[in-house]
Amino acid sequence: MKRITIYDVAKEADVSLATVSRVINDSNVVREDTRLRVQEAIKKLGYKPNAIAQGLALSKTTTVSIVMSEKLFAYNAKILNGLMDVAKIYNYNIMFHTTSKGISRMQDVIESIIKSRVDGVILFNDNFSQEEMEVLNDYQIPTVVVGSRIEDNGIETVGNVYINFEQLAYELTNRYFERGIDDISLVEDKLNMSTMQQLKAGMERAFKENGKEFTKYISYDETYKSSYAFLTEYFKTHKPSKVVVTLRDSQAIAMMNAGTEAGYTVPDDAELICVLNSKYLMMTRPNVSTYNVPEYDMGAVAMRLLTKMLVNDESVKNNNKINMSYNYMPRQTTKD
Amino acid sequence: MKRITIYDVAKEADVSLATVSRVINDSNVVREDTRLRVQEAIKKLGYKPNAIAQGLALSKTTTVSIVMSEKLFAYNAKILNGLMDVAKIYNYNIMFHTTSKGISRMQDVIESIIKSRVDGVILFNDNFSQEEMEVLNDYQIPTVVVGSRIEDNGIETVGNVYINFEQLAYELTNRYFERGIDDISLVEDKLNMSTMQQLKAGMERAFKENGKEFTKYISYDETYKSSYAFLTEYFKTHKPSKVVVTLRDSQAIAMMNAGTEAGYTVPDDAELICVLNSKYLMMTRPNVSTYNVPEYDMGAVAMRLLTKMLVNDESVKNNNKINMSYNYMPRQTTKD
DNA sequence: TTGTAGGCGTTATCAG
DNA sequence: CTGATAACGCCTACAA
User: Fold this and answer.
1) Nearest protein residue to the C1' atom of C6, measured from CA
2) Do A89 and B100 lie within an 8 Å CB cutoff?
3) Which nucleotide is nearest to A32 (CA to C1')?
4) β-sheet with B217-218: strand ranges across
5) Which residue is nearest to nucleotide C11 (CA to C1')?
6) B115 C-beta less than 7 Å away from strand D
7) For chain A, what is the mean pLDDT?
8) Measuring CA to CA, how many Å separate B301 from each of A165, A329, B165, B198, B323?
9) Which of B79, B187, B190, B327 could form a disulfide with B299 if both were Cys (CB 3.0 to 4.6 A apart)?
């Protein structure tokens, strides 16, 4: 089956290629009967417009890039669903890029993004630098960062859809202060350091405002295959804090298992909060307390924001940082 | 920053665009000093070749499409990692498509794949029909299906990288027959019916060969929000089979929780096997027995196969169905 | 309402 | 070794 082009359709329908182009693009100047004739030819030949050629002619690809860390892939599923659904609505194609330490450095990804001439890009706030964002900016590629908050650098062509994790941690900490508890640990997740930094900052702020110092940031190196392995070791010499906060489900579950096996009970000896919700937190006994974060919506909002930026919608000019709300969802691993 | 083109570079380096094109494409006919001059101009101007224009000129986009069900996204993470890593090695870009009932029907996805003029496509064996694959075939788009086995239709331009789930279930069943156990249930997972069919077929074959009939295919409709909700209800009137097989972790864990709460113990009252491994199966107590399926490798192999098909490698002409091996990994929910 | 011709940014083929 | 020039497939003034 020969690649069939607009010329073939034109010949078949006995019109010029311009006319074919018009019916493809829903121009309303073409007469009804010729439109029909063209559409028939299109169907008969199975013609599909070449998006590449269209892209060249229009300097517009109607595709946007999404880039995220390979490791966070499974965790970002819902955000991605939101992104994809909205992209679909606006008829955008998605170029998908993953970054990982070894094979695909962020720099290469940026390179291919620029070459692809995508109209815009969605960046997950994991592992890119200020510098890399500036490159995107230099090439005038509208960008929105989704996940955690980005610093307010002068770059105003980048949007941001985020959860204020700093505030979340601040509030969480104060809630325990009110109950007279200040023995709080935060377990590091190396997969998303920017979020960790913000959680840590929020706790530090709360402690500082209360004339105390936050010291229990639990970090462990990668010689431990998992947080479970680490915590099992850890609990041989430490007892858990009254409150343990983790970012992701696997760390929370690891904490529960390791703690339980070390003879501690949740929530009596230690309360446990996992910041990011997942269905697995309902599968443990007791169920793990968490926050409801509107993940799907974050994706949807981010993509919608990007599409607006792409059409130069005035309404987003100075209004492209969107703070998404969250709410605390106590379950069985906390006493509140 | 004006979009800078090959002409700008040519002028800057005082050569023709043809020469610039040559140095971009590593042609070895260009003299050393002019190459240097051109490269300098490229760097100075920040020029990046326009992949769209290249695509038009070459009738080759060096991008491949990946399409998977939106719902299975988190579960396919490892396969995707394998796909992405190999794609990166071969410098292929990835167009990412998701299908879901409401918003994006497979038909639309196919449409956009064809328009995009991608070089090839990777299909997850979830929710597409024979017919849709034939469309891809009509447009001569090399395709490889990853996941479970596809039926041997006449279409030889489609590769397949798969786990033989039929055989897996057959062996599993026979292993229990040898122990004198034939009270075996298989819990349906609606998200991947093609895999379910194959598991079911394998069990049926084993039963039939032993003069018995397999009857305990447990299916439940979507009025139940989760398999946990269903099983909790189910165990009020049924006792679990001696052996329960599920496809995915969440079903296995649901079975454990619902069973335990109904007064049954695993593995004494019921042994439990989850076909697809995940880290969460190690987080339960007891740990869930499972199969090791080389997910990352499946992705890597699939993408490698596709790249070979794209360069018309003879070695894959009649050798594009690749059966991946798996192995049983008993843990604490089984007695073997 | 329709057709003609130039342009989008590259690559490839020929001359020189 | 380098430079014109014709594709690649489509869109869009501009003319008719």
Assistant:
1) A57
2) no
3) C1
4) B217-218, B184-187, B243-246, B271-276, B289-292, B327-329
5) B57
6) no
7) 93
8) 40, 43, 18, 22, 10
9) B79
Interface A–B counts its CB contacts (< 8 A) at 135
Closest partner CB to B88 (pick from A1, A103, A257): A103
pTM as predicted: 0.94
Q: How confident is the model at residue B227 (pLDDT cuts 50, 70, 90)?
A: confident
Closest-CA residue of A relative to B61 is: A52
Which has the closest alpha carbon to A133: A113, A115, A116, A117?
A: A113
H or E stretch covering B298: helix B295-310
Fold of A1-49: 434 Repressor (Amino-terminal Domain) (1.10.260)
CB–CB contact A84 B70 (8 Å): yes
CB–CB contact B280 A115 (8 Å): no
pLDDT at A103: 63
Structure tokens belonging to residue B175:
């292993």
Cβ B112 vs Cβ B66: under 8 Å = no
Which residue among A77, A88, A257 places its CB closest to the CB of B283?
A257
> Which of B95, B114, B283 is closest, CB to CB, to A94?
B95
User: Tens digit of pLDDT for each residue in A254-264?
Assistant: 999 999 999 99
Domain A51-163+294-326 CATH assignment equals 3.40.120.10: no
Q: Where are the beta strands (DSSP E) in B224-287?
A: 243-246, 271-276
For C9, nearest residue by CA–C1' is B53
Q: Do domains A51-163+294-326 and A165-292 have the same CATH topology?
A: yes
Q: Where are the domains of chain A?
A: 1-49, 51-163+294-326, 165-292
Could you read off the pLDDT of A190-203 as tens digits, one per residue? 888 889 999 999 99
Please report where in the chains the tokens 């990777």 appear, as a residue: B122
- Concatenated DSSP letters for A23-56? HHTT-TTS-HHHHHHHHHHHHHHT----HHHHHH
How far does CA A101 lie from the centroid of its chain?
Answer: 19
Distance B56 CA to D6 C1' (A): 14
The 10s digit of each residue's pLDDT in A294-318 is 999 999 999 999 999 999 888 888 8
Nearest-neighbour CA in chain B from A211: distance (Å) = 39
What are the tens digits of pLDDT across the range A36-47?
999 999 999 999
Residue range B165-292, CATH number:
3.40.50.2300
**A285 to chain B, closest Cα gap in Å:** 9
Per-residue pLDDT tens over the stretch A115-161: 999 999 999 977 777 888 888 888 999 999 999 898 877 677 799 99
In the structure, how far is the CA atom of residue B16 from the C1' atom of nucleotide C16, in angstroms? 14
Q: Residue A66 above 90 pLDDT?
A: yes
Mean pLDDT, range A171-182, rounded to an integer: 97
